[in-house]
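Deviations from the work plan: none for this task. Representative record:
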Amino acid sequence: MTPSTIRPQSGTAFLLKKGQLLTVIDPEGQQVSDLVAFNAEDTAEWLSSGRTLDYASKFLLTTGDILYSNRSNAMLAIERDDVGRHDFLLAPCSKEMFAKLYGHAEPHRGCFGNLAEALEPYGITPDAIPTAFNVFMNVQVDGQKGTLSVEPPLSKAGDSTAFVAQMDLVVGLTACSAGLSNNFRFKPIHYRVE
Amino acid sequence: MTPSTIRPQSGTAFLLKKGQLLTVIDPEGQQVSDLVAFNAEDTAEWLSSGRTLDYASKFLLTTGDILYSNRSNAMLAIERDDVGRHDFLLAPCSKEMFAKLYGHAEPHRGCFGNLAEALEPYGITPDAIPTAFNVFMNVQVDGQKGTLSVEPPLSKAGDSTAFVAQMDLVVGLTACSAGLSNNFRFKPIHYRVE
């Protein structure tokens, strides 16, 4: 099945039914895809970093791990993972972030703006966008010093991570717009639903 | 000024005006207090772990650090800190968490339930409760293995952390109900607004 393409620095949203498999593919390597999810029946239920990290007792999630909602329900299960390094600590890049951290005078709207536009038809407001599961994002953590540093993704061309929906979901997905996250070359993301 | 008391395993909410100083005190030592905040003028703006960690480029926050909202506005500045070890990764303890992680058959509603009740008069719904800034919570992070482990707080009796409000806020604050977080003795939290 031909995958769908998310153009560089853009985003999309779609319905993912319970039991469907979502495969997120990095076609060129070293690209990040921010993923958010909402219960399709009640979009007030959202993918929660804080619940997921608590239940997993770890911040590096990979095959076999479950992503939970704010209501402690399983939303997505990681079925297969070529990369094993993703981030679930940092909020999606945004206009404000590019101004603050990159010093951009005319900042891109980032994954946040792309997600906000893509989710609007589902009745999901910008303020409802939580910390994303940042597929392929490589945030190195120094447990002693407490520092976080964004490094180039470990994903190579064609690598993918696959998720099985545990409930009917609205999923938002991007091809990330932050230079630090993708080694300063904006690339597309591919995805497949089956 | 006599501080206010949050009884063991309970919570409260109050208005904190821009410029006011909130001091969170651990009167007996080794107790955690979950703190959430919302813009008092528009409670759809909330304290965001993901934005804060991104702007700080670290997960250990202390004196001089700023806690940001989902809209990238400064909400609270840490003015003074006796302890230097707090958590901003894990969601508030909850009924579901006590069932899943502790195996409790009749689980306490936890900080989440306490915050939900305390915030309800301000029109803030349970689904709007984000990952809290867990004052005094000691979550050890292994940056290599990716593991998180909840250890007894480093706070001694009388230690405190003080925050200055950067906007008018609704603040929710608890005396934490999770045994692992407070070395299995439920204690009060004191706080002062000035």
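The radius of gyration of chain B is 15 Å.
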